[in-house]
Each structure stands twice: as structure tokens, then as C-alpha cells.
Fold this sequence. Notes:
The chain is of the alpha+beta class. The radius of gyration is 36 Å and the shape is globular.
Amino acid sequence: MRLLERNSADEFILTKDFVGDEAPPYAILSHTWGADDEEVTFDDLINGIGRDKAGYEKLRFCGDQVRYDGLRYFWVDSCCINKANFTELSQAINSMFRWYRKAAKCYVYLSDVSTTKHEASGQSSETTWELTFRESRWFRRGWTLQELLAPSSVEFFSRDRKRLGNKRTLESQIHEVTKIAISALRGIPPSQFSVEERFSWSENRQTTHKEDRAYSLLGIFDVHMPLIYGEGEDNAFTRLREAIDKPLKGESHYIIYRTPLTRHSIHMRSSNRRLASRTRVDLLKEIYYWADGKDERCIFWLSGLAGTGKSTIARTIARRYYDHGRLGASFFFSRGGGDVGRAGNFCGTVAVQLANSVPTLRRHVCDAIAERDDIASLSFHDQWRQLVLKPLSKLSKNDYLSSYIVVIDALDEPETPIRYGFCQIPRAFHQDFVLHNISPSTVDQDILVFLKHNLKLIGQERSLDAGWPGEEIITNLVQIASGLFIWAATACRFIHEGKRFAAKRLNVILQGSNSTPTAPEKHLDEIYTSVLKQSIPEEFTQEEREEASSMLRQTLGRLHSILNVPEDQTRPLRLHHPSFRDFLLDQTRCADPHFRVEEKQAHQTLAESCIRLMSTSLKQDIFGLDAPGVLVGEVDSSRLETCLPPEVHYACLYWVEHLQKCGAQLHDNDKVHQLLQTHFLHWLETLSWMRRMSEGILAIRSLESMVRKQFEDKIPEWMRRLPEVQEDWSALLQTLEGHTDRVSSVAFSPDGALVASASDDKTIKLWDARTGALLQTLKGHSNTVWSVAFSPDGKLVASGSADETVRLWVSATGAARSTLEGRSVAFSMDGMLVASLSGDVVRLWESATGTAHSTLVGHLGWTTSAVFSPDGQLIASASCDKTVRLWDAGTGAPLQTLDGHLDTVFSVAFSPDGKLVASGSADMTVRLWVSATGAVHSTLEGHSHSVNVIAFSPDGQLVASASNDEDCTYEDIAVRLWDSATGALRGTLDGHLDQVNDVAFSPDGQLVASASEDGTVRLGLRNGSAGQPARRVFM
């Protein structure tokens, strides 16, 4: 590396070639090159010429600035590299990112930005330079990307040498122009960003030589490769991709950085909880037989009652195959266990462990993550498919030496149960084993072996008699255990913790247990009571015992036999078994009032503690970033843990839930009100950093009256533009990004919990109707999805597409069920049949099998809509032939033709009692017909464009209609609500910015959902009026 310096004659000369780290402190110039004959070259400096070139001014500027900053040396790419020496050129290009990173200063000289250009006209010079700054050619050149990111200090200068600012003070402008993450501009290494994101930074940049578009990215990806000018841009990028993929350097950290993970989910966390030797022998043999590939079924499903030892068996299997190098991954759910209690952490954890366990899989997992920057926000089903199934599907038999085992425990424990999705797997693919179906004698023998082993160890540790405690006592303990391994394990822990009083504690267990045969739960209650009583010294007076009991309920000390108390005091206590919680809360089981926990009182105590903690911990900009607009994904997760300790994390998530469960009555100026007055926005900011805003939406619904319109004066001064919403916006208004094109159809699930939307982006999305959280994205169609519907039981979702297929999906998992022919869809009321539109006919299918049932033929034009009557006896269909036809759903025979519209009929619907049929037409009217006779009941007029969708409210009192404003004049894009009995207009729901494509009522009839060309789904109140805003907006 050669540097430039100014000699005593005020000339610029080259230094010797510094090798390695011997170069002295230096500055570096970043600039855009002019014509070849304008730039000062290496030969010019060697020959002492070039002062008359335009580029020499840049050397003078850099030399003066170096002197001003107290430096002596600087580097300029145009003249410090001997480009005639190809070896030197190749070495320089491969080293350039490192050279920029080591520079004390980087000066960006913007030859096309001036601060004096318009001063004479009276315009603000600052305003004019900022406009030209954003448009500078420097931002479009390939080599300047690394010159922006590598140095820690980057200062920008205009061509008249005025300092414009540095990388930090101008970061918002730079971010807007380049789309580079602010965290990258602040020095987060490029390796912390996905491969695809780094490539996106260079998409609009150009270089003189096409190959340099790839070569200029070597430092961004920290790779090296030889230069081959003349190979072409495509070949250069192919070699760059190969260089990136080859080492997979740092990808394990990259996966951990980008995916939702759980740090303590693997079996090592409780590796001591394994089966004792010679217990569960037959069961383990059966599992080993399956795991070693001697059974073709890919899932071994182990189930059993609480306390029968499922988790211990799972840990034993995990440890065995970990020791054998065949454990692919493991995840042990724990109710209320934070990260290990959340299904959202499951897929990322399994993917990382698989990538680390199966070397050939790692690249495919990394590619899967690189493809989706929003991986953490995907639904469970999409995460599983993207992070696990897709990478595994790319493996060939030559990519691995043996099969791998994945161990998952307690599928019914997470906050969002996922066992139901596994239950959808056909039985032919899994082997089932029910623990409590094992013969009692076999279970007793296993418990006998377990007790003998553990009591022997305790006796040896405490120097008790060799035969202690004796066969008779152990047999008695086996009988008391009543088949519950959790009882035996708790008893052994309790005895062991007695230390020199171990024998005395054994007697306590024997004395406290009723010898008469009772339910196993009774014996478990007795040992829990014994453990609790022993935690309070007998010599205490009654008053002291009551005080100790009160303290015990809060501190839970001296209870290691029933609690996992980690040495690290920052980690939470955990129950050894969830049955202890059930015992404490049940007054019929926990008879001693000193130990019983009153659930409402406990929730009140927790709520008060959460509020107190939040009041002292929350504040604006809790991370201290001082940079509005930073994305959550741009902040290192370790910073989240530092600024949000576990107790604050818990308080922010659960304080409202504790309030609700304790039955608290909220009042003005109470603790809750005071918290919200001071910290409401701070709480929302914290939830957003935690990626848990949907929980905040639910909490706000409960506390709605306290926060409405309270924080309008809290808008920070730096915010320049507000979102486009109605002036009388509701406190529940929200916008959720999802669809990338117009939304064509919307439907509620029968229980009102879900909203399904279909879009031109070829997807169906399932949303939580309460919070607006995206739950599933259903992909498979190859063209616009026109319609979506739920089956009456809510288990299936049907979608019809322009690709001429109707697809059935399992709503709980998003799995594809079957594919039918057609483009639009409707379910019969019993869910047995599905109707689809195909050309000028309506086709009926059996939903269970996907087989054709019948075809309704008779329309003279393209069919546009079809619907079943509430009793399932009739089908109504609409068509471009201007008619509505009624058919016998059982036989397919035509019954009536409803003729009266003057143009295409786009939509048709039955009233809930089946007595009326409503139709919407291009003739701008809605007609209500008597289904029994075909007579016109009434005509609803008022739309100024085609009526493309209609729907009845569940009580039949309202008809909702929406119009197609093809001219985009926005004059008729509101949803109109009509009185079905009188035909009078009852109200409108405004808010969409483009035509409405579909409308649906919630099952309780209180909400109206509308899907629009503007890419949103809006939920409005049924009793809407002109200007009534949507309650929630889904995008």
C-alpha cells in the first residue's frame, strides 16, 4: 500500500510500498472519477506531471484537509495503484475494504454538489445542496459502497470544499437514498446482514468495467478471488456467489442473529433428568428399534397422563442420540417458561440445531433465511416450511451418513399449542405409544428400580446402613407412588435435600401417606403437603409459622424438591412438574390454607408488582439509540437483553392479563391510570422492540377508555409526516402489512376468530380478528386468488383462483388438502359439498375427497357467483347472462330463473332464513327476490356504478353492498348498508381508497369486513354512518 504526502516544495509524492500493518495513520479519498485524461495517475506522480489536470484539485483538497486534521499521509485510488502491474491491481482490489476500514478519516469529495450555486437568487444554500446531495452520482457508483461502509469516520465535502456533515449526521438522507440499514451505516459489520440484503445495496450502482460490479463487493462479503477482466458480469457474479457459499464463514452466528431462537431449549438444560438404569427397558427398546430405522414410520408419538414420565423418557432419548452423534435437534416446551413456552421460537431453534448437527444442511438453512428477511414475523406454518422442510427437501441420500432424531417434548404446553398440527398427520406416518396403558406391574417394577437406585445413593452419601431403607419400605413407597414417576422423583429429591435428616424425611413421607388405596393424585397431594410443611421449622410458634407461610408463598425458598431453583439468580424458577401448580390452586387438594394460593389474590399481587416495575423501568427511547426510524431487525438482540431484563419483559407482556384475572375494577387516577398517563407510549415502544405488538393490541382493547385521544400532543417534533387516516380515528385503528397487491375477497371463520383474505399476490392470508396479527400465509396458486371461504366447522379454507383451480387448506396448519377445478368457491352448510365456477357452469365437489359430485348447466354466459341456501337444499348462481338461477343442490336440477336485471349479475346471497335472495348487478341495483316464488321483493337503488358484491347480516336485517368505481373517481367506493325489509339506506362505511371487491359480516353481526383494490381489509362497525372509520385495517 503506497500513500501520498506533501513534500517541502508543496508537491505530492508517493511513499514506499507499506506491507502488512506497518502503514502510518492515513486518510483516504472517496470520489467519482472523471474522464481518463482528467484524473492524476500513478505514472503522472512518478514523472512529476499532471498538475494541470482537473483531478489534481482533489489531491490539493485532500492534502489540505489531512493537514487540517493533523495527519500527514493519505491514499487516493486513482494514483496510488500501479494499474500496469496486474498483480498489484488484484492485490489492491482484494485489500481495498480493509484499507478503507483502517483509515483514520475518509473524505468524500462530491464534485457535483455545490453550496454556492443558488445563493445569489436568495434561496437557502443548505436546501439546494441537500437536494443535489441526494442526487449525487457518488451514490450510484459501485466502488463507493464499500467506501461508505468500511471506514468508521466518513465526512462529506462539496466541490467548493465546504463540509456538509458526516456519516452519522447525514444518516437519514443516506439511508433514504441508498436503502442501506441505519445500523450498517453506524458500523454493524456487513456480515450481520443477509446475503440478499447486501446484494440489494448494490442493485442500482454502476461501474466502468462490468466485472467491477462484482469485484467491488469482495469486501462487503469478506471474500477473495482473482480478477478476470473480460469474463463478463454474469461470470464474475457466479464466481462471487461461489466464493460466498464455499466457506459458509460465520453462518452459524448469522442464523442465530436472524431467526427466532431459544437459548435454553435443548436437552442439556435438564440433562440430569434421565431414566435410571434398568427402568422402562421394554419401552426404550421399542423406541430404539424405531429410531434406528427399523420402522418406516417417521414419527414416534409418546403420550400419557401427567406424571407418568414422558419428559424424562424424552431426555433419555435425546441424550442417547446426542452421544451417538445422531440428535438432529430437541425442544422441550415448558408452560409459562418464557421462550420455551412459545411456539414462535420452535422453528428457529430446530433449524439452527439441524444446521449445526448436519453439516451438509447448513448451507440450505442459510439460503432459506437469506431468501426471507421477514422470517421472524412469518406464521408458525410458514416458518416450519421455510426453515426446516425446504432445506431438508434439498438433501440427497449422499448428503448424510445416517438418520437423525428430533425430540420434541410437551407439545400441549406452549402458549400457542402446536400439537393439533401434528395430529393432522395421517396415522400411517406415526407410531403411537400410550404410557398409561402399560401394565401396572411393569410400571411398578420400573419405579421400584428407580427408588432402589436413588435411595442407595442417598444412603451412601449420608453413611446410612448398607441395607437402608429396606425392601419392605421401598415396596411400600412403590404402592404409594401409584404409578406416578413424578411422585417417586419428588420423594427422592425431598429425602436427599434433608441431608443428615434424610431418614427422618423418609418417615415423614410414610407417615403422611394414607395406606388405603386411593387415586394416584391423592398420594401426589400428600407428598406436596409434606414438602411444604417441612420447609417451615417445627420449633416455630403458630404466629411465626403463619408469617413464614406468608413469606414462603412469595419467596418459595427451601423447595428444591418441587422447584428447579437455578444458581443464577437472574434466571426464573421453574416447577419440576406442572401438577404442583394445579395442587396449589385447588382448595380441595391443598387443604392447608397456609399453603394454598388464592388465584385472584395472586394475580392481583403480580399485577401490582408488574405496574410498579414498569413505572420505574420504562422510558422513552429505552435503548438509547437516539435515532427514530431504526428497524427492530437492525438492533443486536444482545442489546435487547441488556436494556430489557427478564422481569421487565414479563411485566410488559402480562400485566394486563393479571389485572383481568384478578377481577380488578379500573378507576380514574388509580395505579393503572397513572401508569398509562406516564408510560403508555413507552410501553408500546417496548412491545415493538420485543416483537409482541399483537399482545399490546389485546391489552389496549381492555383498557380502551383510558387511552383514547390522550396522547395527541405527544407526537415528537422529528416526525414529519403522519399516516393518512380519518380525522376522527378510532383508538383501535391499525395497519398491518401483508398483501402486496389488491385484496379481492374476505371471509370470517364461523367462530369469528379468524379473517381470511385473498389477493392478486396469489396468496391467502389468515389473520387474528381480535389483534390483526398475521397467522398463516397460504401459498400454492399461480395466479390471482379471487375468492375465499371457510367450511362451516372452520377446519377448512377454500380458495378460488384465476389459475382455474380451487384449493382446500387446513385452517389450523395451512397445509394443502386437495385441488379442484374452478375459479370461485362456496361451501354447503353441512360442509359436505364445495361449489366452484368454471366457464358458464357451476361444479359441485365432495369436500372430504375432492371428487366431482355434479355439474349445473343452464347459464348462457360466464358464471360470476354461487352460494348455498342456509338449509343446503338450494344453490343460487349469478351470470353474465343477466340472470340468477336457483338449483336443487341434491340433484342439480334447475328450479327457477330470476330475470329482471339489465346487465351482468356479479354477486348473489341468501338471507339467513333462506326466504330471500339478494343479487347485485352492473345495472347499479341490488334486487331482493322471494326464493320460493322468484318474485321481486324490492329493488335497492343508489349506487352510481356496478354493484359487484353483496352480503346479508347474520340476523337478516341488513344487506351490505359495494360498488365498482371503474373510473377511479372514488365517488362510490363506500360499503352501503340497507334495511332488508324496507329497502331504506341505513348507513355507509367509508375509508377505502379504491373499489371494494368483497364484503362479509362477522358471525355476531357486529363487524363488517371489506376487501379492496387498495390492498387493505377494513373492519367497520355494523351501525356505521357516513364517515364512520374502520376499526382495524389489514394490509
